[in-house]
Amino acid sequence: MSILAITGGTGFVGSRLIALALEAGHRVRALTRREQAAREGISWVQGDLQDRPALARLAEGADAVIHVAGVVNAPDRAGFALGNIEGTANMLAAAEGAGVRRFVHVSSLAAREPDLSVYGWSKAEGDRLVEASPLDWSIVRPPAIFGPGDLEMLELFKLAKWGLALSPRGGRISVIEVGELARLLLALAVSDSCRMTLDVDDGVEGGWSHPEFARAIGAALNKRIASFALPRPLLMAGAHLDRLVRGKRAKLTPDRVAYFCHRDWVVDGAKRPPANLWVPQVKTEDGLAATAAWYRKQGLL
């Protein structure tokens, strides 16, 4: 049994990670910005990534830190830097100050192309801080994440319900189901594997084209999909319209369009985790069906 200090524990990936950690018999100390209901096995630490005393309390006595929290959408460069660079620096300092050696950092495949988007730049800079630290670190760079509890792909499912899919022109992507990612993070936290930057996906060689993935979503809904590839200027216009209509709640932003339109978001197979540490177990088709079922149960689809 280990004591795991987790940031981002109330989010999509973090909540699944906590569930797996508790099932495995670990004790969890989790950072939260809001008061949480008491749960056996979890000690909630109120604060955020800018609250250094809270981060010190989070890390104290932990066997490993799993740093999941990050900013995926911000109105400007400063917002991304605050969450993904300064926040990572603060968590590293807290871990080192508390004598925690093991540090698992959740990055993004977007960090591979830092010039494409501010988000990718901020994640790459956070990675550099982790790599320069004296801790026993591992960095995981997931591609698009889906699964029960996800709201980022909800609109793709809503479109698919009407038999439609909109995507950038060309290009291929890798994807991973949320429980699969959480399982890897947990394995890294309790293993001796360190000083590695890992790409992780569903194991599909060469990834998915956008129409292929759209058809997989359609299959999860028993729908035949008509897929339409949109030029970048039209996607950018849609992003500005989304920001105008939904403000800070906008899902499609100009920064996201910048990396959505990149043609290669397929993981590097040579950087996948060692097979003795982790291998994918959930087929994407099954994971998408479970996601659709969750949306229906929540009344979202």
Short account of what is shown:
This protein has 301 residues and is an alpha/beta fold. It is 41% helix and 19% strand.
Name a few traits of the molecule:
301 residues, alpha/beta, Rossmann fold, seven-stranded parallel β-sheet, three-stranded mixed β-sheet, 14 strands, 41% helix, 19% strand
Give an overview in words.
This protein is of the alpha/beta class. The protein has a domain at 3-150 and 175-204 and 267-282: Rossmann fold (3-Layer(aba) Sandwich). It has helices at residues 12-23, 52-59, 77-97, 118-132, 154-161, 178-189, 210-220, 232-246, 254-260, 284-297, and strands at residues 3-7, 27-32, 42-46, 64-67, 102-106, 136-141, 144-146, 164-168, 172-173, 175-177, 196-199, 208-209, 226-230, 264-265. It has a 7-stranded parallel β-sheet with strand order 3-2-1-4-5-6-11, sandwiched between helices. It has a 3-stranded mixed β-sheet with strand order 12-9-14. α4 links the parallel β5 and β6. α3 (77-97) packs parallel to α4 (118-132). The mean pLDDT is 92.
